[in-house]
Design brief:
Helices cover 22% and strands 31% of the residues. It has 213 residues and is an alpha/beta fold.
Length: 213
Amino acid sequence: MERALRSTERPLIVDVGSGNGRFASWLREASAIAFRALCLDACLPLLRCAPAAAGQRALADVVDTRGRLPLAAASCEAIVLMGVLHHVPSTELRAHLVRSAANALRPGGILAVTVWRFADRDRFRARLAPWSLCPRVPSEQLEKGDHLLRWGASGGGDALRYCHHAQPKEFERVATNAKLEPVESWVADGQSGDFNTYHLWRRAGDPVAPYGS
């Protein structure tokens, strides 16, 4: 990512699902590169909590827009999807989001993604809820790896949240179809050091097909 950011004066980094902007704020402290940042999130209260260091903020719900990002083609050097893809329902919608991100990257730009490895952990298996609690979701729409998690303090809250546990190589195939090249992947975080999978993908020089194609 460092190389992509250094290739342009004041590169643009877009944090999709930014929450309170902590990634952009951290990167500004950790990196000597002067960059512009745009934080996109569906939660206005969280965006309002973002400090000035997080950069520009804008409301955006990638589920409501069917994966379309409010970004011009080839407009940014890096896009970050930290803990986002596994909360986007359906293979099709996740593919649309990755393709939309790829289209917004300049050639050589980087897409950084983190996804949870949750469904094989005792801590989160205890938080799995039956889909009968969400009757508006037809069972035929569910895909392998789709789960409903109890959300809140220590998993004891009343809120329910959709999470997708990706199969090996699942997101790599999505990236390849969006003409993104693998740069690096690794696992980290949690007591066992493998709670999240990290992916860095680079946009190739070829044009990316428009969203939804």
